[in-house]
Amino acid sequence: xxxxxxxxxxxxxxxxNWSEVGKRNSNSHIQLVREYLRRASIFHNNYPGKCLYxxxxxxxxITSPKTNVEEIQILNEVHNSYHRALVTSYLExxxxxDEGNQVAIDNKDLFExxxxxxxxxxxxxxGEGGINVNGxxxxxxxxxxxxxxxxxxxTDATLDKMDxxx
Length: 166
Known about the structure:
The structure is a single chain. By secondary structure, the chain is mainly alpha-helical. It has helices spanning 4-14, 27-46, 58-61, 81-98, 102-106, 112-119, 140-143, 156-164, and strands at residues 124-127, 130-133, 136-139. The radius of gyration is 15 Å and the shape is globular. The mean pLDDT is 88.
């Protein structure tokens, strides 16, 4: 079986310094979280599954891949249970893409914003009544229906430019 996407995802997750995640605040983090929540809202509306939104579980929304991603060693580096759930789902999505699952293929970029967030040392969490990122809380009422809003640019060039003003 082709495991190209899963192998690239494992490489990408392995290159993140998980001990540093959450120790930096950058302007781009809010942009990345906003875009992830927009994509997660669309996905969750189309493929509702048991999860604590916005921490989507691909195996609960689509199906479980044949590969048991829980056995992938890099997951032991992700100590926050919510972020481990997102990384696990990212790996599951890529395993399903390798298996030819059309829903996974159609949603291949679902986790791109949150993986970039981790790569840039950022983190977000679900707090009382909202999503917290960079010390700011955004009520669920703001994020609840992001399906309608326009996508934002999360290219590295744009994110780097945002962070230059930090």
